[in-house]
Amino acid sequence: MKKYIQKSLMLSAIIWIIVTLVSFLCFEYREEMKLNFLILIVSFLGMGIHYFTSYIFYDSFLKELICKYILVESMVLVIGIFSGWFIETNWWMSFIYVTPVFVLAYLLGITQMRRDVQAINLKLAEKKVGKSYEE
Q1: Residue 75 belongs to what domain range?
Q2: What is the pLDDT of residues 75-119, one digit of tens each?
Q3: Assessment of whether the complete model's pTM goes beyond 0.85
């Protein structure tokens, strides 16, 4: 299921890039294209920073989680300021938007990890029972 979701997200990203490129070339939507390229560039930079920080802070889960939050918050803030979502006086609103979404995504990730661990433990227990019958 995880690979299916990854492939579908990759396909939707490719479709998004092609559609925005065609609309840029044919209809000259320059402002939308600037926002799309900004999101793309910030996403690549964010992933690079994420891998770099996870490499540095691989020993502490809490440090890595805090770095991820700071990275996501800064990406939303930068994209929001450049695209006009936030102005200089209400930049703090990004914390109100990002924090609940980040916490919910973290909790969903933990429940998925627990299910994966339980499934792996179940398979290991089945293999152990199968070996004891063979002996």
Answers
A1: 2-134
A2: 788 877 777 777 777 777 778 888 888 888 888 777 777 788 888
A3: no
- Give me the pLDDT at residue 2, please: 64
The full 3-state SS of the chain, as one line of letters, equals CHHHHHHHHHHHHHHHHHHHHHHHHHHCCHHHHHHHHHHHHHHHHHHHHHHHHHHHCCCCHHHHHHHHHHHHHHHHHHHHHHHCCCCCCCCCHHHHHHHHHHHHHHHHHHHHHHHHHHHHHHHHHHHHHHHHHHC
Distance between CA 99 and CA 104 in Å, rounded? 9
How many domains does the chain contain in total? Answer: 1
